[in-house]
Design brief:
By secondary structure, this protein is mainly alpha-helical. The protein contains ten helices and no strands. It is 69% helix and 0% strand. Helix 7 (128-144) packs antiparallel against helix 8 (148-166). It has one domain.
Length: 206
């Protein structure tokens, strides 16, 4: 089975997607374990929230680096697969597994982040127009509501809705199933945030 190129790419997507860049960067450059502070997430928002208390300039740089690297986790393996001529179905599966890897990392006892940045890297390749729409919604909510989970979930909703409006029949695969699986995983990882939102306890990103 491990000689099958698709299986090798699936494993690579999951294991590369699982690399916790936010945790690694915070430990390497700020000697901080972000899993013990703030929301305890390994994503860019918690990197920013935790590190800005001691070094705001570094916090912003490391948060941006985390977003970029997490997005590249979702994109890089797909690009290599596309270059080698693997099918769109295989490419979408690679994208799904990259997101799952980030959210349920074997390096962190199958804990992980929310999957937003990694999902962005994936959908940017397949659905650039829908990603632009989602980014616009994320930016608008971020500037007004200033709650990361609201921005992310609002952008996710915009992505799903626009994908059905723009690509009612998904190019090459004729199904929205991979996108909906990614959305399900991201929403599932946001359940604690949703519960805090309902209780009025979710914090703003200042």
């Amino acid at each position: 089975m491990l000689t099958n190129i698709n299986v090798l790419f699936y494993l690579a997507a999951y294991l590369i997607g699982a690399i916790p860049f936010g945790l690694i960067l915070a430990k390497a450059f700020a000697n901080t374990d972000i899993r013990t502070q703030g929301s305890q997430s390994i994503g860019a928002t918690n990197v920013l929230r935790v590190l800005k208390e001691t070094n705001p300039a570094m916090a912003k740089k490391l948060a941006i680096a985390t977003v970029v690297l997490d997005a590249l986790k979702g994109l890089a393996v797909i690009l290599v697969a596309a270059y080698l001529g693997l099918s769109p179905q295989t490419q979408w599966t690679i994208g799904v597994l990259a997101v799952i890897g980030h959210c349920f990392s074997p390096y962190l006892k199958f804990e992980g982040g929310k999957g937003v940045a990694t999902a962005v890297g994936v959908v940017l390749y397949f659905l650039p127009l829908e990603t632009l729409i989602a980014f616009s919604v994320w930016y608008l909510l971020g500037r007004t509501v200033r709650i990361s989970s609201v921005s992310s979930l609002g952008a996710l909703g915009a992505l799903i809705i626009s994908s059905f409006l723009i690509h009612y029949e998904m190019p090459h695969i004729n199904t929205h199933a991979p996108l909906l699986i990614i959305a399900f995983v991201v929403v599932y990882k946001h359940i604690p945030n949703i519960m805090r939102l309902l209780g009025g306890k979710e914090k703003q990103v200042i």
